Amino acid sequence: MQSYPNHWEADVVLTDGGTAHLRPITPDDADLLREFHGRLSPETIYYRFFAPYPRLSDRDVRRFTTVDYEDRVALVATISDALVAVVRYDKVAPEEAEVAFVVEDAHQGRGLASVLLEHIGAAARERGIRRFIADVLPENRRMINVFREAGYTAQQTFDEGVIRLTLDIQPTDDSTEVMRAREQRAESRSIARLLFPESVAVIGASRTAHTIGQTALRNLLDSEFQGPVYPVHPEAKAVVGVRAYPSVLDIPDQVDLAVVAVRAEAVADVVEQCAEKGVHGLIVVSSGFGETGPEGRARQDELVRTARAAGMRVVGPNCLGVANTDPSVSLNATLSPDLPRSGPIGFFSQSGALGRAILQRVADRGMGLSTFVSAGNRADVSGNDLMQYWQEDPSTEVVLQYLESLGNPRKFTRLARRLAKLKPVVAVRSGGSAQTTPTGHAAGGLALPDYAVTSLFQQAGVVRVDDITQMFDAAQVFAYQPLPKGPRVGVIGNSDSLELLVKDAAVRQGLKPHDPVNLGPQATADDFDRALEAALADDEVHSVVVVFVPALHPISDDVARVLRARSLGSDKPIVTTYLARQGVPEELRHVGERGETLRGSVPSYPAPEDAVRALAYATRYTQWRDRKPGRHPELPDIDGARARATITRALKNAPGEEVWFGGERRYDEDTAVSAEDTRELLSCYGITAYPDIPVSSADEAVVAAGRLGYPVVVKADSPDLRVRAGGTFVRADLRTPDDVRSAYLSLADRFGAEADLVVQRMVAPGVPTVVRAGDNRSFGSVVSFGLADVTAELLDDRAFRLAPLTDMDAADLIHAVRAAPLLFGLPAGATSLAEQPNVEALEELLIRVSRLVEAFPEIGYIDLDPVLVNATGAHVLGARMWLREAPEVRPDAGPRRLRGVTF
Predict the structure, then answer these.
(1) In the 8-state DSSP scheme, what is residue 668?
(2) Distance between CA 392 and CA 713 in Å, rounded?
């Protein structure tokens, strides 16, 4: 039997937050198809077949379940091993196929038809299909709407009582936006089902004090959860005074959420029981899974497969749990008794070990949380899911994330950009530039310097901080103060030395401080009030730092009242070093009916530098949010079909060399591409790389120069030599055969057999730069830029941005390197502005390179070195490329799906 592509199989989230499994149909599905058809109502059958069709004949079943996965393709959706929906296409013309689907009545309205259409459309495009034809009865309004609302270009005709819809299934901006919006709603609701359960079972509840099972149960009860709590214990009739049940199946009522605290070996049986019970979600606090090695990883994968197949999402395993402070729920399904007050902050943490300390710190600082999720091994629910939920959660105004790895980096950056336009996103990314990844998480770590990680987060709108302390420092401003409208900072205080510290710190952070207003050590609360009133009324002041230290007479409470009052009515943020206190002290808080800290409360920091740094985070975030995002310009001379053919040919011909740069082995799984194929592939995206001719003797060098035309250069073809040899690896402006012969002999004598020598047509002098791009395992497609200068290389003066670049991204990328001013002045020897480097051409080159690596995941690495920027353009004088076999499914590409079980 012909096999189907593995990537056609996927787990998906439905509009109500449940899950289903999609896969191609096989002949083994015959009995499932009969049972499915038998459950359909007469109306549904009539809409599908245009006639009564009470049962399927054996011939029908064979025809429907036997497909070739080319011209005839069918996908099925299953939940708990039951078939609940089918979609199929049959090719009727070279680029056209007829499509039809049917959804079981009990599961209609859950978004199955829409997600099936997305996946069958993706499969059809892989097989060269460009259009779908669908015949629908006029009264089948639900099905007509599925096609019309898909976002594809559609035409409609009516003939003999049937509506014929013709859909161009090529992705469009509209269809992509529709898909993303449906994804957001579905994933948000799947998280809401975990955070707003009406009932909770604790499976593994123990009668022994201080065990995980009893701790989870007591925390639920102590939080005054608003629904029933059901302990599950195989023998006990009650646990901590609450009636217990032998298994979840013995609980007489519906169970929405199950906290699983049994041995790892017993979790599989528990999940099966929860699936049979119809539980909506699982929080698995048990350890012994992916963090322990291959055996635990297999157990973890099986846990997720079973749960998703039954429509359940999983938090964990090896996690601290989830909490929701909404008074209508009051859910503390964690192992921590220290739950902060209700507040505007949503917190996601991968680390279970840090979770309890994080919750304690939030409480100690007087801050409040809306929701908290510690995902542990992050086998299913991840920070991406929480971002989908927090985007539309009215109770969450600030998002905090403690990240150890990014499971789906492309989706992370896409969601972070969208969420950050609405709400601040602050992240601690542990591990820096380390190559390792925490056990139990996604394979692969950051292969970028730490400053690159920060810049890529900033490009996505994420405020990246160095540690948990800085995270809370920034969160205090975001949660309780307005955003600053600019970088100008007013400084008020009663300590001259501390005010100078504020001013110096502000300058270091890129802010623009005014001269401090020193009120003197004897300043009263009225003095602070008048100074604050003046600063807040000044249009040249965008935020205020107040320094207050104890004076000889106790006026601290009076100053606190002034700060609270002025902050409450101000649209400018105020931060303080009030008595060197940290957090939002009681004296500076505005308190709600439930004791929660309200907007207008003033955050305090133990040191002036901490206050300024937090304010700088808020200022830079505001500047990012207000900045125009730029556009993706239309680029001529792009031939994607020719590029695809070139890559296919190059992968077959590549020698599979290892690549070494600076003594570090890179891309040993990738394959080097020939110079000809590299130039051909670049030309498909409108990038011209100057050819060079390898030579092994002075005579060959002279012949090559004659072929290329004078003037020429002779150079050593190794980027690594530039760092070691400075400018001595190249001989330029060679205009005669004698010049070429002399240059060759000089370089051959200097480097011997260490470097291959090449001859290349000379380009007018300019500024040499380096453009590199490729796939990073933590962020996806990344473009880097720097100057091709020995000093720049040694100082690692490079900048990084995520692909694809907008015109604004390209301009920012160039300006981000410290040596960028060399591109914006006159080069040595230039006499007029007409000889200034053409930076616009360099920006276009960066955009084209970013489009190329984003379009083709087979490209592991591109090295354009050097790119000479002169008055006539950006000239690629050196180009190398390495390809690899692309993954079947590129993260965040194609129809929506949950992350794979093994990732």
Answers:
(1) T
(2) 60
Q: Is the pLDDT of residue 670 over 80?
A: no
Beta strands in 686-779 (DSSP E): 692-695, 712-716, 730-734, 757-761, 767-776
pLDDT at 249: 98
Cα of 445 vs its chain's centroid, Å: 14
**pLDDT for 159 beyond 90:** no
Whole-number pLDDT of residue 667: 45
The tens digit of pLDDT for each residue in 382-401 reads 999 999 999 999 999 999 99
Question: Distances from the Cα of 827 to the Cαs of 758, 809, 824, 867, in angstroms?
Answer: 26, 25, 9, 15
Cis check: omega of the bond before 234, within 30 degrees of 0? no
Q: Which segments of 321-430 are extended strands (E)?
A: 321-324, 331-334, 341-349, 368-374, 398-403, 425-429
Length of the chain: 903
Strand bridging mode 257-260 / 200-203: parallel
DSSP 8-state assignment for residue 822: G
The pair of structure tokens assigned to 177 is 């936006």
Let me know: does 530 contact 559? Beta carbons within 8 Å.
no
Whether 786 shows a pLDDT value over 50: the answer reads yes
Question: Which of 699, 696, 701, 723 is closest to 713 using CA atoms?
Answer: 701
| Contact predicate 367/419, CB 8 Å | no
CA distance 785 to 771: 5
User: Residue 656 has what pLDDT?
Assistant: 52
In this structure, what token pair is assigned to residue 289?
């899974």
CA–CA separation, 423 and 416 (whole Å) = 10
Which among 699, 734, 688, 696 has a CA at the least distance from the CA of 714?
734
Q: Are 378 and 404 in contact (CB under 8 A)?
A: no
What is the CB neighbour count within 10 angstroms for residue 135? Answer: 13
| Alpha-carbon separation of residue 835 from 331, 823, 844 (angstroms) | 67, 11, 19
Tokens of 771: 């453009």
Phi, psi of 734 (to 5 degrees): -90, 120
Please say whether the dihedral angle defined by the alpha carbons of residues 508, 511, 515 and 519, taken in this order, is positive or negative: negative
Beta bridge partners, 575, equal 545
Distance, in Å, from the CA atom of 234 to the CA atom of 245, rounded to the nearest integer, reads 7
433 has a pLDDT exceeding 50: no
Alpha-carbon dihedral 830, 836, 837, 841, rounded to 10 degrees: -150
Task: Give the integer Cα–Cα distance in Å for 187 and 183.
Answer: 6
Burial 275-296 (b: 16+ CB within 10 A, else e): bebebbbbbbbbbbbbbbeeeb
Average pLDDT score, the chain: 89
Share of the chain above pLDDT 70, in %: 92
What is the pTM assigned to this prediction? 0.89
| Radius of gyration of the chain, Cα coordinates, nearest whole angstrom | 32
Does residue 323 sit in helix, strand or coil?
A: strand
Closest-CA residue to 820 (of 791, 797, 796): 797
Nearest C-alpha neighbor of 785 from the set 776, 772, 804: 772
Cα(900)–Cα(275) distance, rounded to whole angstroms?
20
Over the stretch 10-50, which tens digit does the pLDDT of each residue have?
999 999 999 999 999 999 999 999 999 999 999 999 999 99
- Which stretch of 145-159, 259-273, 597-611 has the lowest confidence by average pLDDT? 145-159
Average pLDDT of the residues in 483-509: 96
